[in-house]
Amino acid sequence: MSGKTKLQLAGVVRESIVDGPGIRMTVFVQGCPHHCKGCHNPHTWSFEGGYTTSVDRILEEAEKDKLLKGLTLSGGEPFTQAAALAELSQKAHAMGLDIFCYTGFTFERLLELSGEHPEYIDLLEQCDWLVDGPFIEEEMSLMLHFRGSRNQRILDVPKSLEKGEAVLSEIN
User: What is the pLDDT of residue 82?
Assistant: First the structure.
């Protein structure tokens, strides 16, 4: 893995406390197939927008901030750039950072699709937590921790992969 791998991003928030536990760098990928009604980030839907950067560039920025607990992958839909984000996440783990990821897919659907997209498993294996499921405007609640709608779950990804089924995280 070269680190020169390219990512198409909508933006980066260098320090966030609302996108997972602790102080996090949130990486917003560009491009999303879900187009959820009431989406918080509709500007990330187009696969043509945003800007290109490298895995190494993101890691250089993360390394400068000694307060970071981890990276959050958001979007857009992170699994549309799963291979590059798996590389980013693996290198972030090596730096001592954890990975929190949002997806409009359910965990079960990601497993189903992994036959055609083995890179989905590569990214899942690098995630510590996964907020899964589409945002459903009618299920929206401002009382939820790190998620927008009641149908979404915060999963413990290592335990979920081990069991082959969704396992809720303690931070639900």
Answer: 98
